[in-house]
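Work Package 3 (structural annotation) set out to generate three-dimensional models for the target panel prioritized at the project kickoff. During this period the team completed the workflow that converts sequence records into C-alpha cells, so that structures can be stored uniformly alongside our sequence database. As a representative example, we reproduce one entry of 224 residues exactly as it appears in the project archive.
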Amino acid sequence: MSAILALDATTANCSVSLVFEDGHAITRSEWVPQGHARVILPWVDEVLQQAQLDPQRLRALAWVQGPGAFTGLRIAAGVVQGLAMGWQKPVISLPSLSVLVNQIPAGQRELGGRYWALLDARMNEVYAQSFQYTADGFVAENDAHLWPIANLTMALAEPHQGSIGDLMNLKQGWDVIKPLLHDWRAACPEAEAAGRLAWSQLDQARSLDQQLPEPIYLRPSVVK
C-alpha cells in the first residue's frame, strides 16, 4: 500500500508522519524547541522502519511550508528537498494555516461557518487567516496575513464559528485576543494532518524540476 511521508517544523513542535492511502498513519510528534535538525531525519527513518516501507513505495512527500518559525521552515525545506532528490519523489507544499484549520474535528465544523487559524509570529504579531467551511472542505476567505494585535482584534470581532492555533507565547496580546476567539482549540500544525490533506491534493505534487520547496515568509525583514 502506498503512503505519503509528511513533515512539519513550523513551530517548536516537530512532527513526521507516514499517512497511508487507507487512512491509517504512523507518526512521531514532540515539542522540541531548537531541536528540529536533530530529530527530523531520525524520525523519518523510524516511521519508515516501523511500517517496513521502502521509500520507493511512497506516492509523494508533503511538508508544511509556513508561515511559521524561520529556522524550522528552512530545516524542513532542506530535508524535503534532499529526500525528494534522493528518492526521486514529487513534493506537495502545504500552507501551515490551511493544515491547522483542517485539524478542527469534523463534529465541530458547521457548513457555511467561518473559522480562524492563528500562529504566534512573535513581536506582538500573529499569522492569521480565515476560512469558510463548505461541502468541499475549508476554503480560504483571504490570504494569510501578518497581523498586528490591534488590527486582528477588529477582524476577530466579526462573527465566526471556531478558531484554532498556537498562541501560547503571545504574552500581553493573549489577554486581548482570548475573549474574541470562539470555540478556541489550542494546536500546532501536525504532519499527520498535512499528510491527510496532501492525499486530497495529489494534483499539486511537483517534481524538483518543476518547483523547488520554498517556505512562505510574511515578514520581509526575515529574509533580507
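The helical segments are 36-51, 70-87, 96-101, 149-156, 172-177, 191-199.
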